[in-house]
Amino acid sequence: MRLFGNRAPALDPLEREAHAWVRRLTSGKATQADAQALQHWRSQSEAHAVAFRHAQEVWHKVGKAGVLVADRRPLPARRVASRAPNPQRRAMLGGAFATAVAAAGVAVVHPPLGLWPSWEDMRADYHTGTGERRDVVLSDNVRVTLNTQTRIALRSDAGTASGIDLVGGEAAFDVARTDRSFMVVAGNGRTLAQNAGVQFEVRNTGGSVCVTCLSGQVRVESAGGSLMLQANQQVVYDDQRMGVAVAVDGASAQAWRNGILVFRQTPLSEVVDEINRYRPGRVILMNDEKARLPLSGRFSVDNLELVLTQIRQAFHVKARTLPGNILLFT
């Protein structure tokens, strides 16, 4: 079998640029400026975005193959050598190669400190940063509001939006009319809007998905089962199970659209996690006893520092500020 008898087709200029970007991101020398330049490059056209996605897929596959090769067998020895190869050194080189490839893959999938977009971020057609909300019109009959730290990728049929992948975060959907079903895929499940005048929200964070129906009805399906949600009902599912529908206050559920966070007997640890979605930096709660205490209230996302001050005073926790807008509660 001839493995290298035929040359692979040459890459076109756009593909070469895309592969160059991937190499840059996996070099260990990428900067925030590189990340911003990449986002600008990808946004020039759909062809740019597609070329980069293809380059990502190639690198991801090559990375995995490289690790397998390095783990299973060393490279063939050269025919001419000044001395016999050292088995120990060869093993070290093989291990180093595997480590380097694996590290590069991890760096792209999970960028350190969020320095550049992750694989999931890069495949998103629309996204929001920390504390940002954004309205997107997908078609005449579908409007989407993205909450903070949210990424969505479009699904299309014959050039028309037929649904989205909620890669992560939280989004609200207003479906005015239904020429066909509109689908939101999140986690291992999906939500279908099949009637006119449907409003619903989907949140994909922390390994579980929460679906809230605000008007009309939606069908929720996952590996754990399926059910129909009516207005002012909510359900949570994960990789194993589908929860039961529970009644919710619709106004409180969608308060985030107006920049309001609503907590009702919510453990302080969960409150801090939610604040971290809206606030640059990081709040770290290190007191396990205080973490379980409940908190209730309505707070503006525009005054989170005031909220943190109130938490510190109400729960008698000590606060320490670190560089990078990091706040320790002990």
UniProtKB/TrEMBL annotation:
Residues 125-219 form the FecR protein domain. Residues 16-57 form the FecR N-terminal domain. It comes from the Bacteria. This is Signal transduction protein. One of its GO terms (molecular function) is sigma factor antagonist activity. It holds the Pfam family DUF4880.
